[in-house]
Design goal:
By secondary structure, this protein is mostly helical. The chain is about 60% helix and about 5% strand. The chain contains 6 helices and 2 strands, in the order ββαααααα. The two termini are about 25 Å apart.
């Protein structure tokens, strides 16, 4: 579930025990934002894996970097490392505004507010503007 500090804003246990149905419930609640963030996370993981390939191949001149920025640039993460989380989420097209009331009544939520902000606070002890 997703805890908002006072109550659960979303509980997967209220849906079928089927993993597929839980995924469908999450997709319904967060729409394309869930797919966008999933794609970004997958790409970041691939970039980090590529980083290890570069650094482990000492015969490759790219395995020796002169700065952290050169390293981030080599794996395609320089831009993401230079902006706030909010700016990064904006670049992905992740919804940040309050949903229209008709979408709230349908049980849809804002991924950025309900999940990503909490993850950022828990992992880095900072808000999304830092």
């Amino acid at each position: 579930g997703i805890w908002n500090g006072e109550s659960f804003s979303f509980l997967t246990s209220q849906y079928s025990s089927s993993p597929f149905m839980k995924k469908m419930a999450l997709l319904y609640r967060y729409n394309f934002d869930l797919l966008r963030i999933n794609k970004a996370v997958t790409q970041a993981v691939l970039s980090f894996n590529y980083l290890y390939e570069i650094l482990n191949d000492t015969n490759d001149s790219r395995s020796f970097m002169s700065s952290p920025n050169e390293l981030w640039g080599a794996v395609g993460l320089l831009t993401a490392s230079m902006v706030s989380f909010n700016v990064f989420l904006d670049s992905l097209g992740i919804t940040k505004d309050v949903l229209p009331s008709w979408r709230q009544k349908l049980g849809q939520g804002v991924l950025r507010d309900e999940l990503l902000t909490g993850a950022n606070l828990s992992n880095y002890n900072q808000n999304n503007d830092e």
